[in-house]
Amino acid sequence: MNPIETRLMDLTGRVALVTGGASGIGRATAHALAAQGARVIVADINETGGWETADAIGTAGGFVHLDVTDEAAWCRALDYVISTEGRLDILANVAGIGLGGDFEDLALADWNRLIAVNATGPFLGCKHAIRAMAGSGRPGAIVNVGSIAATHAAPDLAGYCASKGALRMLSKSVALYCAHKGYPIRCNAIHPTYVDSEMLDPIAALYGSREAMVQAMAKLVPVGRLAKPADIAAAVVFLACDAAGMVTGTELFVDGGQTAGIAPSHFG
Ligand SMILES: NC(=O)c1ccc[n+]([C@@H]2O[C@H](COP(=O)([O-])OP(=O)(O)OC[C@H]3O[C@@H](n4cnc5c(N)ncnc54)[C@H](O)[C@@H]3O)[C@@H](O)[C@H]2O)c1
């Protein structure tokens, strides 16, 4: 990255909270925000992984236990951030779960869990982060990690698609709410394709090996590969920084072209 780009994405002095920071995209996001100068509080139900990420970041990192489905826990986590860091500038809602299978066998408990973690969690995060950010008068940014499943349905992922569709419209509504209120807080969503993270471990088992899964999935992505967690983290950094100051209520597909068009061959 050249010096001009580095300045554009500078986050020195900003305080960020990253949910799901113990693993995959959240961990990469925590590192990427810290690399741009932010102080980063990792939030997760996985304490061991969360502390590992925070420790790897070093003095700019911290950890707070947070179950994103629990409103009281959000209040405690944000109280902790404000009391230790003095403010919150960036919220990255990355925590999420994936469950799939035959729609007729989708258990109500699994549906409820998908909605709770993937939609209610970000809702609670947005609600309480806005309260924490609005009073500061400083620019705030919320970045919600959705999925291409937010806009493209799959027969074996109905609950996941529904939860990400909800997240998509939540993000747009929050953006308009903040603008309407005159809060200098932006809210956007990122929709990744398949990302080679721990979330795909159970799917790899179904393919027999990770290599077989990666090979099969890569064929579905026009650029011919899965995304890396760092690919998604870079997009979070962009939407969180002042270079994206006019960007709110929108969505960024980080999908190697997967949702851009239709099948490549129509002439045999
Ligand atoms: N991996 C993919 O292929 C892919 C594709 C598109 C979108 N996404 C989305 O990206 C986000 C991150 O996925 P990932 O690939 O890094 O998955 P991951 O499984 O590697 O990480 C998810 C993290 O969320 C945490 N988490 C789960 N439930 C939580 C809860 N109730 N409270 C707090 N933390 C909780 C987990 O402990 C874990 O650290 C998710 O929202 C996912 O839906 C992933």
Characterize the structure shown.
With 268 residues, this protein is α/β, with parallel strands linked by helices. The protein folds into two domains: 3-192 and 230-254, 3-Layer(aba) Sandwich (Rossmann fold); 198-226, no CATH class. Helix content is 46%, strand content 14%. The protein is built from nine helices and seven strands. It has a seven-stranded parallel β-sheet, sandwiched between helices. Helix 5 (108-134) links the parallel strand 4 (90-93) and strand 5 (140-145). Helix 4 packs parallel to helix 5 (108-134). The N and C termini lie far apart (42 Å). Bound molecules: nicotinamide-adenine-dinucleotide. Residues 19-20, 22-26, 44-46, 49, 66-69, 94-98, 117, 145, 147, 192, 194-195, 197-200 line the site of nicotinamide-adenine-dinucleotide. Keywords: Oxidoreductase. Its EC number is 1.1.1.-. It holds the Pfam family adh_short_C2. One of its GO terms (molecular function) is oxidoreductase activity.
Report the top-level CATH class of the largest domain. Answer: Alpha Beta
Radius of gyration: 18 Å
Instruction: Give the overall shape, derived from the CA principal axes.
Output: globular
On the 0-100 scale, what is the average pLDDT?
96
Number of domains: 2
Question: What kind of sheet is the major sheet?
Answer: 7 strands, parallel
The fourth-level CATH homologous superfamily of the largest domain is: NAD(P)-binding Rossmann-like Domain
Number of helices: 9
The end-to-end distance, rounded to whole angstroms, is 42 Å
Bound ligands:
nicotinamide-adenine-dinucleotide
Low-confidence stretches: none
Q: Largest sheet, order of strands side by side?
A: 3-2-1-4-5-6-7
Q: Would you report the number of β strands?
A: 7
SSE-based structural type: alpha/beta
Q: In the CATH scheme, what's the topology name of the largest domain?
A: Rossmann fold
Please state roughly what percent of the residues sit in beta strands, choosing from under 5%, 5-15%, 15-25%, 25-35%, 35-45% or over 45%.
Answer: 5-15%
Keywords: Oxidoreductase
InterPro entries: NAD(P)-bd_dom_sf (IPR036291), Sc_DH/Rdtase_CS (IPR020904), SDR_fam (IPR002347)
EC number: 1.1.1.-
Organism: Thauera sinica
